[in-house]
Amino acid sequence: MLFVCLGNICRSPTAEGVFSAVAARAAPSLLARVDSAGTAGYHIGEPPDPRTQAAAARHGYDLSALRARQVALQDFAQFDLLLAMDRANLAALQRQAPKSTLSRVQLLLPYCGVDEPSEVPDPYYGSQPDFDRVVQIIEMASTALVARLQSSRVV
Ligand code: 4NP
Predict the structure, then answer these.
(1) Is 37 in the pocket of ligand 1 (CB under 6 A)?
(2) pLDDT value for 45
(3) What is the dihedral sign for C-alpha 88, 70, 10, 126?
(4) 75: number of CA atoms within 13 Å, CB side?
(5) Phi, psi dihedrals of residue 96, rounded to the nearest 5°
(6) pLDDT (tens digit, 9 = 90+) per residue, 113-127?
(7) 3-state SS of the chain?
(8) Cα of 73 to ligand 1 centre, how many Å?
(9) Which of 2, 6, 43 to mutate to test the pocket of ligand 1 (most atoms within 8 A of CB)?
(10) Residue 7 CB–ligand 1 contact under 6 Å
(11) Is 122 annotated as catalytic?
(12) Ligand 1 pocket: which of 2, 3, 4, 5 to mutate (most atoms <8 Å of CB)?
């Protein structure tokens, strides 16, 4: 499972950390391959944004060990699912994906069965409530995703 956003410093590291914690509690076998990456390379090597780390910490998640990286071609072969935070990330992944792996590329929230919202909004130019909202949306999505994976045994 590869979570993907633009910079890999706000939304997708939150998804990596929160999904890992939720899955560890509910279904440890789902944890085999969980990672995150960005479609852009602006922040390679950086830890999550301090505002993202603070929002995650307020909800009980420690993201401090994560470091940003960019999506690479081999990710499409190595991950069964590449889950994009918004439609722009989805389109970027679909442009990059080898044709045979296109079905692995999905929009996170609809894939989890969440219809509203359908995208995790980019908090980068926002303020604290926007960062807290990202954690809330991703907690909801992670719970739904664990249930979906357990019932379909995709992982
Ligand atoms: P993310 O947020 O895609 O959730 O990590 C962003 C991080 C950095 C930028 C934009 C969004 N940026 O423009 O540098």
Answers:
(1) no
(2) 98
(3) negative
(4) 23
(5) -85, -25
(6) 999 999 999 999 999
(7) CEEEECCCCCHHHHHHHHHHHHHHHHCHHHHCCCEEEECCCCCCCCCCCHHHHHHHHHCCCCCCCCCCCECCCCHHHHCCCEEECCHHHHHHHHHHCCHHHHHHEEEHHHHCCCCCCCCCCCCCCCCHHHHHHHHHHHHHHHHHHHHHHHHHCCC
(8) 21
(9) 6
(10) yes
(11) yes
(12) 5
Residues 5, 38 contacting (CB under 8 angstroms): yes
* 96 has a pLDDT exceeding 90: yes
Q: Is the CB of 112 under 6 A from ligand 1?
A: no
d(CA 42, CA 46) in angstroms, rounded, equals 9
**Predicted model pTM:** 0.96
- Please count the residues of the chain: 155
131 in Cβ contact with 51 (< 8 Å) = yes
